[in-house]
Batch of 4 targets.
Target 1
Amino acid sequence: MPALLDVRGLQVDFEADTGPVRVLNGMDLTVEAGQSVGVVGESGSGKTVLLRTILGLLQDQWRVGAGAVTFDGQDLRAKTETQMNAIRGAEIALTTPEPRKHLNPLLRIGEQIVNVLRAHKRIDRRAARDMAVHLLRTVGIPAPEERVFSYPHEMSGGMCQRVIIAMALAHSPRLLLADEPTAGLDVTTSRQILDLMSSLIRDSGSSLLLVSRDLGVVAHYCQTIAVVYAGQVVETAPVAVFFENPAHPYSRRLLRVATAAHETTPLAGGPAVRERTAGLDHMCSFAPRCPIALPTCRQAPVPLLGNIGPNRSARCIRATEILSGAVNPWP
């Protein structure tokens, strides 16, 4: 059976004043039906661009090059805007960070949910309003009959994020793309939001693609992890296997930093975004920062995301050496 979502060799450039910047550089990612996949990586690695490319939401200064995006056997890149509008929200939904920025400050919460419901359902406004109340109650907002008349500024950040989740799940989509759903929220509220989202996804049988910079969040709420660096997935693995023994030097560094509060040594070579230009297509993107890089890593073509074990892969020619303990990128 084909995967629900399959991204293969996806390339996306940003047209900057100084020339094109390669943001996604051969992105490969798979999400099976009913699966929860966590995408992790430092800021600027291309995680959000990936989600917006899947839904065809990039603006004019972006250029999608080679690669394929397939959803349930359908080529999303071949869809017209009208066809994509029928898929967005109904089949694939998106939650965004900083929910206040994505809620209309001039419309009441209930009206915004009603508009989302009527975009894909042929129902009258009264029925849509009743459904809006039900959705707010489902996501744990107290007194939903009253809250439908509230404006976004009258609600807390956590409540606004619950509204965003309610709108995203209004049509029981088959795939939820969650982009940093708890950004800017306190720890307690973040946990409540993630528990809620995970429960709703599990109950509906939907799939989840969760973008986060927090390895702990992915460890708790996802089955599979995909590590992204400089616009490429450099490692995928079942969560438990990954945390026991990462296979890519960058993955090991991420895990080391996440589990050592005293760790202050930065990665050598500067931020990944500086390396991501169209001229780096023919070498390993992590080679300038990798402590175990070989001359081949800087000269050979970009390594493919190769199979290194059951349900796991890595984009590194030394992955098997790392797993065996023959080399240690960060002694």
Target 2
Amino acid sequence: MVTQFVSALADNALLLVAMAVLMAQGQAAFWIPWLKLMFTLSYVFLGPWVGVWADNWPKQYVMLVANGVKAVACLAMLLGLDPLLAFALVGVGAAAYAPAKYGLVTELAQPEELVMANAWIEISTVSAVLLGVVLGGALVSTAWLQWAADQLRWLSAELPSSTYTASIAALLCMYGVAGVLNGLIPGSGKQYAPVDWAWSSVWRACWQDQRTLWRDPLGGVSLSVTTLFWGVGATLQLIVLAWAQQQLRLNLSQAAYLQAATAVGVVLGAALAAKTVTLHRATRVLGMGIALGLLLPLMLWVTEWQTAALLTASIGVVGGFFVVPMNALLQHRGVTLLSAGRSIAVQNVNENASILLMMAGYSLMLYAQVDLSVLVLVFAVCVTLGMSGVVWRYRRMGSPWPG
């Protein structure tokens, strides 16, 4: 948990720094969502392989190599690589890291412990998002840039000149720390049968895994929820940044701090779920997804940052309470029907395909100069109607409601 916290902390801070680099280069606003798109591509296209890899190698070693790939990407950006290409390489490392991390959780935790385990992982991850956003905001702030320019002149002399050279170098050091911590992670000792690594065999097995999990009643419902949630959530992260800058008149650094309120809410919601929701009652939280969609349009009437912080924190509480039991249920069905790495790979492919589609739509709407209020309403409708469809499917299966 500490290792993935440090790695995720660097990932989220790097996103803010990469956004600042693009803005400093004078790139149009519609290029910013492409950072997320480039990061996410690897989850979709490498999904069939990284899940199998996580099952056939000790998961702590897979995580070590994945962190190494992220460090190489950060170094490449430091040496002048385009932020979009560098973030695509960070995505390769993240795509390999996820099945190993979550797969290890399912191997070490008993089924009745999965909600609690997922709550702690979610708290750790969201805390990394929270502090990563704060750290990223600090690394693009005027105060830090001035201090770095005064105290770290030697760094700019050794590397290609950039306003954010010291910021990227600091994050490279964090990836190094995460790599060292990887060496302290014990393995579960779980062994899986060898697999055929032929291209056609891997794709065929991936397709079969997808069908198995989607056709399972509880697996299909939970996979629908997490796929929708992560697609909208990733896009909402950028919408909140734009909303804070346009409607609340905050700069990028201040807008990043506002996102911290959402992260605090998610932590509280995840902790509440761990205390009150058991695995066999996980479907009780489905209605919270509809509530989440209904909360989003309230953003349009907020004009003060204090009210904005309260609203985003409330959205975070509902989201954290909602997604943790769904993740636990999906992991339980996945490891029962498939294996730890393969089931997480299926989850990653679907969730990140959703992110790609949502981000592409968001980028196109920015390119078309769609008003921010329309953007918020579109994504609110997506959540509300999508979750209503999931609830309808669940009730149609004849399962008791609310769970």
Target 3
Amino acid sequence: MGYKLAGYKELLAVEWNDNAVATFKLNFPGVPVYHGDIAKLSSQECMKLAGVKVGELDILDASPPCQGFSTAGKRKLHDARNSLSMEFARLLRDLQPRAFVMENVTGLIRGHMKQVYLQMVQVLRDCGYKVKGQVLNAMYYDVPQSRQRVIIVGVRNSLSVEPSHPKPQGIPVTVREAIGDLPKTQDASMGHVWVDEWTRRTKWIKYVPAIKQGGHLPCTTQYRRLYWDKPSFTLTRSGLNGMPCYVRNSHIHPSENRALSVREMARLASFPDCFEFTEALTEGNHCIGNSVPPNLMKAIAEHIKENILQATREVA
């Protein structure tokens, strides 16, 4: 969605998760999707599906699964999911796009995981690219959510431009500005679906203070009530699964004793209201928690277009 908002034409999506594929097809029916394991996608098939030859692609973008790096998880050095970044590097080496973008959690550059990050950067450089990583917070890019992510940008060595990142673009958007106008009635067609089971099974929501965040409550769960006049806390996949006893960092409406609706969460992630989610409430929430906020990606994509792609074309 971020690339679409920035005026790009998407040629191919690669995705393993069934619901993510269904959601993608629902919103981007004209974009082909390789639905399967990226490790089984050859570079030749990738270029054939995308309709490009070696060196023709402007940007190759990836967000390898972050659970193996996330500070919210166990951060296992040899988590099998960590190796998927190497599959991206394989495609990068063979396709040789003008630039690439890789996104991941900040846990990738902390503690013992930093050695994985340094190895990853070296592998990307060995593919023939100048590489630069930087931590960006989405709340400074028109996203009403404090969400820090490592953004790695690469530019092909044959191009006379250095990789760079967009500068902060404004003051943070508040929860009130993002969702204050949404109706309090259920409207499935617009995604205003309250997490009824979550609310019904949770007896402790009303005890979470409205004037300050947090509080450890029963079921070893931490529920946090959002502030009206600040950006949202980071929306995570694990905090959106509708099962109170297994949820961490669950978000509660600023003034009502209930969980957020799908559309409210989508707004806090900067998805436009025209973006549709599948009927599976839990899976829809997972999509939001796993996503790169569209407005953050839009800012990155616009920056690359104006400062890297256009510049290299002028030089050529």
Target 4
Amino acid sequence: MIAEFNGKLNRIQIKTSNEENNGAIKCYCRSSTNHTTNKNLSTYENDIDYFVFYNQQRDILALVPIEVVGNNKSISLRIEPTNNGQTKNIKFFNDYSFDKILCVETLHGEPKS
């Protein structure tokens, strides 16, 4: 999909995501041309600007920049806080809501340091 925001046309790959039991949603970030063995996996680096992950169980969307995903096979986006209260290196689903991503990048420009 192509969407215009942030002053340019952005290439977007849409994927569904599955909820895990530990309060996180696992989002797969690769494509396979052989779905039986998953031997031919390829990343989307240099092909897209964003992923949109749709979680059907909760009917929510996340807009994740490709820089966050990199060449990872999957990422986990937390819905609930961790049991031990850890927040370092944790990606929260709500941090990638359309409102937050588009508001910062489109309406207000880059965040100020």
